[in-house]
Amino acid sequence: MLNRKATVLWHYFLDRYLHRWANRRAFEEWQEAKVIAHLQLIRESSAFYQELWNGLTTSKWREFPIIDKQIMMDHFDSLNTVGIRKEEAFTLALKAESTRDFTPQLNGITIGLSSGTSGNRGLFVVSPQEQYAWAGRVLSKVLPGSLLASHRIAFFLRANSNLYGSVSGTRLRFEFFDLIEPMQQHIYRLNTYLPNLWIAPPSVLHLLADAYRQGKLIAKPQRMVSVAEVLDPLDRQYIESVFQLPIHQVYQCTEGFLAATCAHGTLHLNEDMVAFQKESVDGEHRFVPILTDFTRFAQPIIRYRLNDLLVERSRPCPCGSLMTGIEVVEGRCDDLFYLPHAVHQELVPVFPDLITRTIMGAAPTAVAYHIVQLAPDRIELSLEFAVDTSTTMDFIYSTVQLALETLFIRMNCKKPNILMTPYETIVPGTRKLRRVERRFSIESSHSNL
Ligand SMILES: [Zn+2]
């Protein structure tokens, strides 16, 4: 137990107080040395990487072959360094997920599944040492004040995992809220537990804001941290206005703990754990990250293309952090809209951020939306309002419809059919919320933009 806590504290202090560099260049030198040392270790320990990098010099790691989720899953058994077999791990993780009464472990290694469609789920493994280091790092980024002050934390998650239960003590209390439980139960527990720090997906924070507005929820957070889903600007605006608090963000997925917001609300990449290479998408600030995590050993993530779209911040953040600032995490590349060009045959990509901002501009009273592209020429849109707008609904819908059509025409696309459908709240825990979603696949020749 002491060892566990010591590891958490060590990484907490390391990140918060000791990792300080004079300038970006000094930081990059430190990072380069860390990456090289890590890769040498991985080369000795992972059969998959050893073969993949055969004949390549470690100092040229920036040009190593790129892998992705598919490649990682196809070679899972030889990629991980802790001797875990994919079939065995999948069986155990699926069983744990359906029963929810234990955290799956194999040889002391925690097994987790990423969310996604059944054929497309990622498997991840983390050693105990990595878990405690992770907990310390997350705390160093999200806890207000000192770790030594007392904190009551409410952590909303899809499934229980000892990843998140690994820190507890008299001053620090974690309570876990399983997303599969009904909302009324969460509200009841929050009203009695009164946590000061709430960590939850934005879809849950949105529902809690609804409950607070209706007077059902009395508890109010001192700090909110959005995790697990993309924080949509409209959700952000709504939740922040209800609780009168800024939302902090942790950008994390099974591939790693990638970024967290600073005191100024800017999302900074965790480049002190992961080296980010940027694959430019639009020749400007938008990019797909290639990750090299130099803190994970059990399941090494090296030159891994993440299926996410990030927009880099163009101005420096007033906090003075040396870590790259991110304007927005736009979501999965799979959710880019593709519309036929007005003249040519090709499909034109439309970024989720543009769609979101168009909807927000045209329907300023909306508190939530969901837009789904079902086919190149077919889009479904639903809007939610806090107050009864039934009398003006037709007007609002046609305003939004026109604004979206104008956007698409401006981008030289053919005008699609935009159908309005009633808004349905997604039950938390059933699936991840994506406000902008594409539900048809395009040929791979288009996916690289
Ligand atoms: Zn900052």
Summary?
With 449 residues, the chain is an alpha/beta fold. Helices cover 34% and strands 25% of the residues. The protein has 2 domains: 1-331, 3-Layer(aba) Sandwich (Rossmann fold); 336-447, 2-Layer Sandwich (GMP Synthetase, Chain A, domain 3), CATH 3.30.300.30.
Detailed description of the structure:
- It comes from Paenibacillus baimaensis.
- This is Adenylate cyclase.
- The protein starts with a helix and ends with a helix.
- It has helices at 2-18, 24-45, 47-52, 69-74, 76-79, 86-99, 128-142, 183-193, 202-213, 233-243, 352-362, 393-410, 444-447, and strands at 105-106, 109-113, 123-126, 151-157, 172-178, 197-200, 223-226, 247-253, 256-261, 267-269, 274-280, 286-293, 304-305, 308-312, 325-332, 337-340, 347-350, 366-375, 378-385, 417-420, 436-438.
- Residues 444-449 have low confidence and may be disordered.
- The longest helix has 22 residues, at 24-45.
- The protein has 2 domains: 1-331, 3-Layer(aba) Sandwich (Rossmann fold), CATH 3.40.50; 336-447, ANL, C-terminal domain (GMP Synthetase, Chain A, domain 3, 2-Layer Sandwich).
- The strands form 4 sheets. Strands 4, 5, 6, 7, 8, 9, 10, 11, 12, 13, 14 and 15 form a 12-stranded mixed beta sheet that branches. The protein has a 4-stranded mixed beta sheet with strand order 20-19-18-21.
- With 449 residues, it is α/β, with parallel strands linked by helices.
